[in-house]
């Protein structure tokens, strides 16, 4: 995005340059002998054109001349870099998951660099933080706790744990309830059975009851059914609307399935209506405690509730089971209502919901189940790393608050010293929403004030961070637009609070609410880059809403993975993806963009300066072939490769030090300061090229046979210096050298030389001009041209080297400190000289040797040439080895032939 | 030596407003003294100021294939040559503004020794690039060596007094391969430029090519520069392997060298001062 802004700036520069030149041209031409001297007359039609038209033509001609400053090829290169770069992610072996045999998928290559800019991570809990590998842990029936740890031949081990267990042998009514509970669990689901062998599947199932496989859209249900199987009740199959259950006595019970009131995330429960073989009609309902408890009229609510809450605190997913016995009339009523609702043409969903509401009430509570969902491996590690990297992690989940909070503690989203702020329905019921929000913001802001003090005094800010817990209902209250228009205040207040919390947990969220939250953050003042990660269909909306959507290739289907920008197999891969790949992508792309602007400024600015010396006549400085090929072949490949391969810090270090991510946060490398620095560097270099060549050519003879060079030689000299400087600048910036880098950088320089030799070496029959003929060779045959080229390259690279060294020494960023440290480590191991860690030894060593030369030189002015040689010798070997020979061989000559020149 | 003649005292002042084809040409003589003798080969240049040879309209106003001896372009020059493409319905050879405005002053150098003027031999070959003379520029091909016949059907450039096949008497320096012409056709990069005019070769090893003393320069003044405020100069120069006198490179190398040295010292100090901090750099967790 900032790229486009820069482009606009460059467009302004371009237009202003063209305007300046046009205006100057007409000022300059106001004297007639300049406009049309006798030696250079206009054609008849040119003379007749009116002034305005001419000015416009000139303006457009200047635009065409300078248009290279807008790096069109940058877009091509950026796209290629993104496209090829995305393969690097896919190829990463560390991101490959052995369990599922799947690597990461990249669905879009547009967002690679955004991965390095993430400020908010919104993560789903189930299946993302946790494995979504459910395991039935316990169930609680009227206060009796059953734990199916040990299963011996289908026998349940009736475990008693803690105070909840009142007596180990339940009484008659308890027994009845227990059986009902198990049946309810067996019946109330949408699990399908897949037989291993379709031919004699039934028999096999009877013999070995574990051979059948349950398939369901929700892993909870599978876990429940499997758990119940271990408690003695096996769900066999659904056949002709009859559900068959194998009970503890190995009898098959048949229930006729009458209605399924399917699960949805608003009601958060599902029900079935079944008719037992004895003719009784039952309605079994299973759902989240919050949706079941209000509808229960009898049962041991308090006991079960306490148990449920305890389980939730331990991070287990709880479900409550309730039933209701329906009389035939009630059933037929219900059926009628359902039929009507289902057949309704309009508002069917709404009507169905109403009907469900009517049917599902006055339950008798049976019990609760608890299903454990283990954390994914290294989830805690990942979250910790992300937080250290300055990324705010939000957990958005549909689960209960307690469950979610427990998970958050387990994965270190909340730490022990985190102060938890709660913004829940319960609290809002007590006070008004207004007060709660104000209280919270006061706390947070006070904390914020102290936090800034802390950072100033250098204390660690981890000491007091705030975690916010908010639930869906409270959120909808906040988000709800109010008539009096004060809703904006709430929203902003809420945002203010959220921004100052290091971690936010949103529980009881509907899928749309997740997206709403993401949107809220996305559109907030700072426009932070958001990332949403989730695995299930309920996360799709949030994945689509966030800037970067990541899907986990998980159990709940591939819907999320398909809708996402990136898909990874496990949550832990997010760490590497953001901290390593994202960081690299960002560093690469920012360098790429800046470099492109730099190299085009270098390219075009001499052209601009040249206009002042050619009468503003739009004469190009370079040959057309150079103009065309500069961006295409001379300088494109090294930077593309840099954009693909650069690793300024090794990947391991980045992974180890998440705080390095802060160095690139908030678009640090593409800020205006960096941009202006690069532009000025480009302008400086361009001025050096142009005026260097200008003074070299100005009124002197630069060949050894006295012949003169023309304007094309001048342009070629500038261009040669330009290509070398720009390429070597990239070489200076490259930290990670592979043979491909070497090949590309030196290769493109060699290519430039070969191309120039070829281009000038032949009379090209298809061209109608031969202006480059032998220009390059003639230039190379001249000594001063060589010296000039080397000098100019050195001078133009000098400020950048200087800036780097100074910044590195005096104000090192964390990244650079790490680079230094790793370099030191390597040196200690291999016992290198510590000198190598300074970037400037080449300058120092060279300058020490030429200082005596200068001193001796001050005595005799006529020995000027010796001095040049002295300097040359010292600078050359470090920059270019090959010119050295040239110098030495000619050293003998020039004593005799110093320039004696008169112009009387 | 500036011989433009803008100052009234200058001997060439009378020629200031010459036109192209004034016959007989306005001539003038300038005397000058060499302080030092020139030991090795001397190169004689003419220099022009304020002459925009790098103007775009000017630079492109030529036809390289015509100059390369292509017969079809000889009779049908490229459009780029406008308005110097045709004259009275005959194609111009060589066409274009560059060729049309070729420098046509004639310079002759004399040594004044006890009031006797001895002419100094000026060599007019070897002043153009070898490749230009032998490859890039060629006379049109045809039977016979009679250039007059080969250039049949073309006309001379408007400003020229003579057609192109009468530039020189020697056949290998005539027509398009005339070296003065080739030198002129290589357009200069900057508005103030010089071009090689003649060579003065050292005859024997005993005496310098040009001794210190009095000389005079005879000029057949044909080339008008006053209208565009230009200047004309004649430059004598010797050349080393490095080319002519070029103070820029020397100064630049000294400056850069000292800057590098200075920076080296500064950075060394910085490194020593802050180096310790770096080695024990605490790695932020």
From TrEMBL, chain A:
Coiled coil keyword on record: yes
Residues reported to bind ATP: 124-126, 221, 263, 286, 317, 397-399, 508, 514, 538-539
A Pfam family it matches: PhoLip_ATPase_C
Active site: 124
GO biological process: phospholipid translocation
Gene3D superfamilies reported for this sequence: Calcium-transporting ATPase, cytoplasmic domain N, HAD superfamily/HAD-like
Location of the P-type ATPase C-terminal domain: 561-813
GO molecular function: ATP binding; ATP hydrolysis activity; ATPase-coupled intramembrane lipid transporter activity; magnesium ion binding
Annotated family: Belongs to the cation transport ATPase (P-type) (TC 3.A.3) family. Type IV subfamily.
NCBIfam families: ATPase-Plipid, ATPase_P-type
Protein name per the record: Phospholipid-transporting ATPase
Species assigned in the record: Pandion haliaetus (Osprey)
UniProt lineage: Eukaryota, Metazoa, Chordata, Craniata, Vertebrata
Gene: Atp11a
UniProtKB/TrEMBL annotation, chain B:
Composition bias, Polar residues: 66-76
Residue ranges crossing the lipid bilayer per the database entry: 248-270
Name of the molecule in the record: Cell cycle control protein 50A
GO biological process: phospholipid translocation
Superkingdom to which the source organism belongs: Eukaryota
Segments for region (Disordered): 62-83
Family indicated by similarity: Belongs to the CDC50/LEM3 family.
């Amino acid at each position: 995005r900032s790229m486009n802004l820069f482009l606009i700036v460059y467009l302004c520069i371009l237009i202003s340059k063209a305007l300046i030149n046009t205006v100057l041209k007409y000022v300059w031409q106001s004297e007639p002998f300049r406009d049309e001297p006798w030696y250079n007359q206009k054609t008849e039609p040119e003379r007749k054109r009116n002034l305005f038209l001419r000015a416009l033509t000139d303006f457009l001609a200047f635009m065409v001349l300078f248009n290279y400053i807008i790096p069109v090829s940058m877009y091509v290169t950026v796209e290629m870099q993104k496209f090829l770069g995305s393969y690097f992610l896919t190829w990463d072996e560390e991101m490959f998951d052995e369990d599922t045999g799947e690597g990461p998928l990249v669905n879009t290559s547009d967002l690679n660099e955004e991965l390095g800019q993430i400020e908010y991570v919104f993560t789903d809990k189930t299946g993302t933080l946790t494995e979504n590998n459910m395991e039935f842990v316990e169930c609680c029936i009227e206060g009796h706790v059953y734990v199916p740890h040990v299963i011996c031949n289908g026998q349940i081990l009736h475990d008693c744990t803690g105070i909840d267990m009142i007596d180990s042998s339940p009484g008659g009514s308890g027994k009845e309830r227990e059986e009902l509970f198990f049946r309810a669990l067996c019946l109330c689901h949408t699990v399908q059975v897949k037989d291993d062998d379709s031919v004699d599947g039934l028999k096999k199932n009877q013999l070995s009851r574990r051979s059948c496989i349950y398939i369901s859209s929700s892993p909870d249900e599978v876990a429940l059914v499997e758990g119940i199987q271990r408690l003695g009740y096996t769900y066999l199959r659904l056949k002709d609307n009859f559900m068959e259950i194998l009970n503890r006595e190995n009898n098959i019970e048949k229930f006729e399935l009458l209605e399924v009131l399917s699960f949805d995330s608003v009601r958060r429960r599902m029900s079935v209506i079944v008719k037992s073989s004895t003719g009784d009609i039952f309605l079994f309902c299973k759902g989240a405690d919050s949706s079941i408890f209000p509808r229960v009229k009898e049962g041991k609510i308090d006991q079960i509730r306490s148990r449920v809450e305890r389980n939730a605190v331990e991070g287990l997913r709880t479900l409550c089971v309730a039933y209701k016995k329906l009389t035939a009339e009630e059933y037929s009523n219900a059926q009628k209502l359902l039929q009507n609702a289902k057949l309704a043409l309009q508002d069917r969903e709404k009507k169905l919901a109403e009907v469900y509401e009517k049917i599902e009430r006055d339950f008798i509570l049976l019990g609760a189940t608890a299903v454990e969902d283990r954390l994914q491996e290294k989830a805690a590690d990942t979250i910790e790393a992300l937080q250290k990297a300055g990324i705010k992690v939000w957990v958005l989940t549909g689960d209960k608050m307690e469950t979610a909070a427990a998970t958050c503690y387990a994965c270190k989203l909340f730490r022990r010293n985190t102060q938890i702020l709660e913004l829940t329905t319960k609290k809002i019921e007590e006070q008004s929403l207004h007060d709660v929000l104000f209280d919270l913001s006061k706390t947070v802001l006070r904390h914020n004030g102290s936090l800034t003090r802390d950072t100033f005094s250098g204390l660690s800010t981890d000491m007091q961070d705030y975690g916010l817990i908010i639930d869906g209902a409270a959120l909808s209250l906040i988000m709800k637009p109010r008539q009096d228009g004060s809703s904006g205040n709430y929203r902003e207040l809420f945002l203010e609070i959220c921004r100052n919390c290091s971690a936010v947990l949103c529980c009881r969220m509907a899928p749309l609410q997740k997206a709403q939250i993401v949107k809220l953050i996305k559109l907030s003042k700072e426009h932070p880059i958001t990332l949403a990660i989730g695995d299930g269909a309920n996360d799709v909306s949030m994945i689509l809403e966030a800037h970067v959507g990541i899907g986990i290739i998980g159990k709940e289907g591939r819907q999320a993975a398909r809708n996402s920008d990136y898909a990874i197999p496990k949550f832990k891969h997010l760490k590497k993806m953001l901290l390593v790949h994202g960081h690299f992508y960002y560093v690469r792309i920012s360098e790429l963009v800046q470099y492109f602007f730099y190299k085009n400024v270098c390219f075009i600015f001499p052209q601009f300066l040249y206009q002042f010396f050619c009468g503003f006549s739009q004469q190009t400085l370079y040959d057309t072939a150079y103009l065309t090929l500069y961006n295409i072949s001379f300088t494109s490949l090294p930077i593309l490769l840099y954009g693909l391969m650069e690793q300024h810090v090794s990947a391991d270090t980045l992974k180890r030090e998440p705080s390095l991510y802060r160095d690139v946060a908030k678009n640090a490398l593409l800020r205006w300061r960096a941009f202006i620095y690069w532009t000025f560097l480009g302008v400086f270099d361009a001025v050096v090229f142009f005026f260097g060549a200008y003074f070299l050519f100005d009124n002197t003879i630069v060949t050894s046979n006295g012949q003169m060079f023309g304007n094309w030689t001048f342009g070629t000299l500038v261009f040669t210096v330009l290509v070398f400087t720009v390429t070597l600048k990239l070489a200076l910036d490259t930290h990670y050298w592979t043979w491909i880098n070497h090949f590309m950088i030196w290769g493109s320089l060699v290519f430039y030389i070969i191309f120039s030799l070829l281009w000038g070496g032949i009379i090209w029959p298809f061209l109608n001009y031969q202006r480059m003929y032998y220009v390059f060779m003639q230039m190379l045959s001249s000594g001063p041209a060589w010296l000039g080229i080397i000098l100019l390259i050195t001078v133009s690279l000098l400020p950048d080297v200087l800036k780097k060294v100074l910044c590195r020494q005096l104000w090192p960023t964390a990244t650079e400190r790490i680079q230094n440290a790793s370099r030191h480590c390597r040196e200690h191991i291999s016992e290198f000289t510590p000198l190598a860690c300074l970037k400037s030894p080449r300058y120092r060593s060279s300058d020490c040797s030429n200082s005596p030369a200068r001193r001796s030189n001050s005595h005799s002015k006529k020995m000027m040439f010796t001095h040049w040689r002295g300097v040359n010798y010292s600078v050359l070997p470090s920059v270019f080895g090959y010119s050295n020979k040239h110098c030495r061989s000619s050293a003998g000559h020039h004593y005799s032939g110093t320039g004696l020149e008169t112009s009387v | 030596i500036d011989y433009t003649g803008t100052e009234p005292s200058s001997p060439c002042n009378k020629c200031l407003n010459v036109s192209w084809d004034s016959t007989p040409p306005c001539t003038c003589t300038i005397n000058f003294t060499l302080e030092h003798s020139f030991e090795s080969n001397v190169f004689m240049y003419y220099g022009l100021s304020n002459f925009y040879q790098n103007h775009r309209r000017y630079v492109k106003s030529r036809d390289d294939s015509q100059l390369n001896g292509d017969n079809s372009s000889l009779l049908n020059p490229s459009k780029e040559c406008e308005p110097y493409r045709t004259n009275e319905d005959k194609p111009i050879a060589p066409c274009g503004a560059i060729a049309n405005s070729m420098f046509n002053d004639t310079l002759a150098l004399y040594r004044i020794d006890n009031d006797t003027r001895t002419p100094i031999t000026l060599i007019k070959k070897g002043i153009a690039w070898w490749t230009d003379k032998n490859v890039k520029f060629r006379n049109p091909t045809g039977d016979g060596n009679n250039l007059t016949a080969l250039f049949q059907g073309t006309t001379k450039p408007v400003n020229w007094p003579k057609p192109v096949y009468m530039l020189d008497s020697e056949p290998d320096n005539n027509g398009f391969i005339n070296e003065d012409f080739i030198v002129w056709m290589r357009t200069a990069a900057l508005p103030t430029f010089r071009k090689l005019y003649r060579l003065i070769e050292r005859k024997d090893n005993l005496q310098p090519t040009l001794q210190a003393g009095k000389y005079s320069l005879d000029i057949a003044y044909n080339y008008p520069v006053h209208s565009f405020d230009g200047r004309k100069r004649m430059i004598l120069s010797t050349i080393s392997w490095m080319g002519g006198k070029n103070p820029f490179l020397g100064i630049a190398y000294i400056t850069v060298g000292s800057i590098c040295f200075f920076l080296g010292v500064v950075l060394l100090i910085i490194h020593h001062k802050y180096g310790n901090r770096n080695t024990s750099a605490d790695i932020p967790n």
